[in-house]
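Milestone M4 deliverable, item 7.
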Amino acid sequence: MRRREKEQARLLRQSGKSVKEIERLLNVPRSSVSVWVRDIPLTAMQKKRLSERGHSLEVLEKRRSTRLANESRRRTIFLEKGHSDIKEFPDIDVFMLGIGLYLGEGSKTDRGKIELSNTDPRIIQIFIRFLMQSCGYPLSRIHATIGIHSHLSIDKAEKYWSTISGIPLRQFSKTFIQISRAGKGERDKLPFGTFSVGVYDTAARVRLEGWIQGIYKRLFPTEYVLHSMTKLRI
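Output delivered:
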């Protein structure tokens, strides 16, 4: 018998700890703790405290389970809507180009936004039109950021990209200064830096995933079933 653990368990029980707490603190089986402390009575105050704590934990767990279930249902709704939305786009060229650009160039690390970075003004213009026409965002909801090498003009880059995109400078985030080991001549191939545009919207990101899955399902129905079994993600 582990005498030291038993003595510690009894002292902890006398202080009002629950069997579960003692199990965690001493790293011993709960069945052993129950046997060691079963003859130790608890005061009315200790019983009340344990009861309130248990109730509080139960409420928190129920809230957590409900929140996760609601998020799962919400995600499913947006995914299903994304599948059915595809055939309803009047400008299919913008829609398909936007999807393709996002798959190839879009940022996929943050599930709370839709964002694309590029140096080609045509790609930026197409993606902005996709955000506006296909995703339904006004230009005022689209944010922008410039990444540029330190020796180049930030003012010129901001004016250039604002003109190209139509996005006013007040919607630009702080310009990101890039440091490169390449020669100055090589860096000057990108005189206006890299431009990023996007929107912050978790629901829209999930809907976009639904569109992509819907297109993939139409093109590769058999493969889609296999990927769905492993929760296809982008």
